[in-house]
Design brief:
Chain lengths: 409, 228
């Protein structure tokens, strides 16, 4: 019985009769929808960037830093004392059931030379498990092995930034480079990983066997010492267990008495990053909620204008009732007007929102990601706003007394 | 069986604490094909009577049988359907929809009757032809003269093949010559198509076109006689 195309045409005609008024009413919805889309895009963009950083760091990651010893009553900062050893690193996966793998690191800055090019980078001495702990893979060649670590061979894996600076377009595989004047054979190239959470270029690095770094590059007074130990827990849920198990193991291994402070620090980076991600998510929701308030205001604008329109068109309603319009015919007619206004406004708002997110990410440099979900949400929401705020005026119109409506001047 | 039968209908309005009887026990029989004029001074109840006949209002007491069906107990939507199928309205102020062409104005009752687009158009064109408005289908009300607008209204009243046309002072806004043309149209429709016409007027000249005159005074029917 209800004829949708006919009613839609009728509604469009009524809206065209008051172009300025309809446009201004739609503007409320346009701004609301655009705000929702842009805010969600900015928020989603930020969340995505943090997620990327988390996955580039490696998942379920703990970092053990040495130091903070007390010497002569003076407490030193974390990392000031060389208290972690390769042996600590080897014992952790054996003794701590919540730990999946570890990668000890002894790193330092070094000048590297290939042919006529030279470059200063961070040389990281580590074990083969490093690639697994950091969820890192090779784009070329092979990783070094436990045998390489045992024999302190002079082989290396290059990060992408190093390859670009030393080799340009040349294939580095199998070439010999010099690190602190010692020749190293390039046996592999690391895949690009991008920036870390604090903006470091993670690809500006060279991996070499840990023992090579200890004995030949960064020889210290403490044999077997490592700078830090990276730990991969078995799962996110076991991060805290792993932290506790490592702490008690290291206290025992370092002979720390019950009332003494730890001479190492275990940091849970994943948790920190997840907290950051969580708070960004909450921010996104908050921004979206604030933006939806403007959509709500737009909806009230529709209701307002529909009420005015119904008062103005009381006589028209009376005529329609006299010639046979039923309650639903009248209701549907005005509901359709409200719905069309909100859907046209919603569509224009989506275009504006997508456009302004693009401009925002270009100009302000914020990452912005418009998800199809947010478009669908905004469109559905504006439709719902139209129906919700259109219903009362339409209901009111349908209950007019035909005699009074016909007499209305 | 009479087409219209009112049995002792009374319509009471509440004005503050006072009850006002706009109609007081009116019984009328109107047969199919009659041409009746309803006369009386303002406030006599003739408009209230027309509103009840037109199913726009309901009697407070008494029964109204339209085509043998008691409509005095029907609900809103049922009454809307009766108005749509059985009654055509012609008003003093024409009451056409603005910004809507003559053709679409005439199509409107058929839309509410759920008739398809092609048939609507066809029948609307025919009805406009019957009232002598060929070639004006696309005109908007504000492009038509008063007489032409009233013809569009009559076409709209005819188009659903309603057996009854209720005209409330249809010539009140028209000059004498146009009034006579409109009345001639009513006479022709009554004679040729056997449409029952009920006409409210206070002009004896206009009532003279009808064949039966009913007079109201203070909510009561005071005379019901044939027009010679």
């Amino acid at each position: 019985m209800t004829n949708i195309p006919w009613t839609a045409r009728l509604a469009l005609r009524a809206l065209r009769a008051n172009k300025m008024r309809s446009a201004l009413t739609m503007l409320g919805i346009i701004i609301g929808v655009a705000a929702v889309i842009a805010m969600l895009a900015v928020g989603t963009g930020a969340t995505m960037r943090i997620s990327e950083q988390i996955s580039s760091m490696g998942s379920n990651l703990l970092i053990i830093l040495p130091g903070s010893t007390t010497s002569g009553g003076m407490r030193m900062g974390a990392g000031t004392q060389p208290t972690l050893t390769y042996q600590d690193a080897q014992d952790i996966p054996v003794e701590c059931p919540a730990v999946d793998a570890v990668a000890p690191v002894l790193s330092g800055a070094a000048q590297v030379v290939y042919g006529r090019q030279n470059w200063s980078t961070v040389v990281t001495g580590t074990t083969p498990s490093m690639l697994y702990v950091r969820d890192w893979s090779l784009s070329e060649g092979r990783a070094f092995t436990d045998a390489d670590v045992q024999n302190a061979t002079k082989v290396c894996l290059l990060g992408q930034t190093v390859v670009e600076n030393l080799f340009g377009d040349e294939d580095p595989y199998g070439k010999i480079i010099k690190i602190k004047n010692l020749p190293f054979t390039v046996i592999g190239v690391l895949k690009a990983k991008g920036q870390s959470a604090i903006g470091q270029d993670q690809d500006d690095t060279i991996f070499i066997p840990l023992t090579t770094a200890q004995r030949k590059l960064f020889g210290t007074a403490f044999p077997g010492m490592v700078r830090i130990i990276l730990v991969k827990a078995k799962s996110t849920g076991e991060l805290n267990d792993a932290q506790d198990q490592i702490t008690s193991l290291l206290r025992q291994r370092h002979h720390i008495g019950p009332r003494q402070d730890d001479d190492f620090t275990v940091r849970n980076l994943t948790q920190m990053m997840q907290a950051a991600e969580q708070s960004t998510r909450i921010m996104t929701l908050l921004l979206g909620a604030i933006a939806s308030v403007s959509l709500l205001v737009g909806g009230i604008g529709i209701m307002n204008i529909m009420l005015v329109s119904i008062t103005e068109r009381t006589r028209e309603i009376g005529i329609r009732m006299a010639i046979g319009a039923k309650t639903w015919d009248i209701r549907f007619q005005f509901l359709m007007e409200a719905l069309i206004m909100s859907l046209i406004g919603g569509t224009a708002g989506i275009a504006t929102g997508v456009g302004s997110s693009a401009v925002l990410s270009k100009i302000a440099g914020w990452p912005a990601a418009v998800s199809p979900f947010s478009i669908l949400l905004a469109f559905g929401f504006s439709g719902a706003v139209g129906i919700f705020f259109g219903f009362y005026p339409a209901y009111k119109a349908s209950l007019l007394n035909p005699i009074d409506a016909l007499r209305y001047e | 069986m009479a087409l219209i039968e009112t049995q002792e209908i009374t319509r009471t309005y509440q004005l503050g604490d006072v009850e006002v009887n706009a109609l007081n026990g009116v019984s009328v029989l109107i047969e199919k094909g009659e041409f009746v004029s309803i006369m009386g001074p303002s406030g006599s109840g003739k408009s209230t009577f027309m509103n009840i006949l037109g199913c726009l209002d309901k009697p407070s007491r008494g029964r109204y049988l339209l085509d043998g069906i008691d409509v005095s107990t029907m609900g809103r939507d049922q009454l809307a359907q009766i108005r749509n199928r059985k009654l055509g309205f012609v008003f003093q102020g024409f009451n056409l929809l603005a910004r809507t062409s003559a053709l679409e104005n005439v199509e409107l009752p058929m839309f509410y009757a759920g008739i398809g687009a092609d048939e609507r158009r066809q029948r609307a064109l025919e009805a406009l032809g019957m009232v002598g408005l060929q070639g004006r289908e696309a005109h908007y009300p504000n492009q038509l003269s008063g007489g032409q607008q009233q013809r569009v209204a009559i076409a709209r009243a005819l188009v659903n093949e309603a057996p009854i046309i209720l005209a409330d002072e249809p010539t009140g806004n028209l000059d004498t010559r146009t009034s006579e043309e409109i009345m001639a149209l009513f006479v022709r429709l009554n004679a040729d198509s056997k449409i029952t016409i009920i006409l409210v007027t206070h002009e004896p000249d206009i009532a003279a076109f009808s064949r039966r005159a009913i007079r109201f005074m203070d909510g009561r029917l005071i005379s019901d006689e044939e027009v010679s």
